[in-house]
Amino acid sequence: MTISKLLLDSRNQKLVAALLKNPRAPISALARRVGLSAPATRERLLRLEEAGVIKGWRVELDAAALGYPIAILIRVRPMPGQLPKIAKLAQSLPQVTECHRITGEDCFLMRAYLHSLDELDGLIDRFLAYGQTTTSIVQSSPVPPRALPLPGAAR
């Protein structure tokens, strides 16, 4: 197990924990929380970002509020020679929000969102040109996306 050396520093751990609680916190508030000056806190944030510990400052949008109330998971088992085409197709479809290359009989696992069930056939048919699909409709998400525990945190 490799842990970034930056995360072995207790102030960096406090800084990351504070960001997880409130990603929109101003530098001055973060600095007070970790007991550093604002410039020192900004420098630590830059080092954590450059090291890849903190990746991409994102805004999470609610799919249902955007008119996509139906979440689906699609597994794809490609036909021979079709692997790159499936990845390219997934990248080109805006309703596909995640695509993972996985082990096992299926090679891809994707998450997509639909306006209505009427769109399901059309989306799946796009992938059927390159392989076999298995689709599941998400009923609920008892564990939504969340951050991993920081080193030394209770598990």
What would you note in describing this structure?
- With 155 residues, this protein is of the alpha+beta class.
- It folds into 2 domains: 43 residues, Arc Repressor Mutant, subunit A (Orthogonal Bundle); 68 residues, Lrp/AsnC effector binding domain/regulation of amino acid metabolism (RAM) domain (Alpha-Beta Plaits, 2-Layer Sandwich), CATH 3.30.70.920.
- Helices cover 34% and strands 19% of the residues.
- It is built from 5 helices and 4 strands.
- A 4-stranded antiparallel β-sheet has the order 2-3-1-4, with helices on one face.
- A hairpin with a 6-residue loop joins strand 2 and strand 3.
- 12% of the residues are buried.
- The model has no long low-confidence stretch (mean pLDDT 91).
Sequence-ordered SSE layout with sheet pairings:
Layout: H1 10-21, H2 27-34, H3 38-50, E1 70-78, H4 83-92, E2 96-101, E3 108-114, H5 120-128, E4 131-137
Antiparallel strand pairs: 1-3, 1-4, 2-3
Helix pairs in contact: 1-2, 2-3
Please outline what is shown here.
The protein contains 5 helices and 4 strands; from the N terminus they run H-H-H-E-H-E-E-H-E.
Question: Keywords, please?
Answer:
Arc Repressor Mutant, subunit A; 19% strand; 34% helix; Alpha-Beta Plaits; 5 helices; 4 strands; 4-stranded antiparallel beta sheet; 155 residues; alpha+beta; elongated
- Portion in strands: 15-25%
Would you identify the CATH architecture of the largest domain?
2-Layer Sandwich
Question: Separation of termini?
Answer: 16 Å
CATH homologous superfamily descriptor of the largest domain: Lrp/AsnC effector binding domain/regulation of amino acid metabolism (RAM) domain
Task: Give the helices and strands as they follow along the chain.
Answer: HHHEHEEHE
Output the CATH topology of the largest domain.
Alpha-Beta Plaits
Number of domains: 2
- The unreliable regions are none
Strand order of the largest sheet: 2-3-1-4
Shape: elongated
According to CATH, what is the class of the largest domain? Alpha Beta
Number of DSSP strand runs:
4
Quick one: biggest sheet?
A: 4 strands, antiparallel
Radius of gyration from the alpha-carbon trace, in angstroms:
20 Å
Number of helices: 5
The helix/strand class is alpha+beta
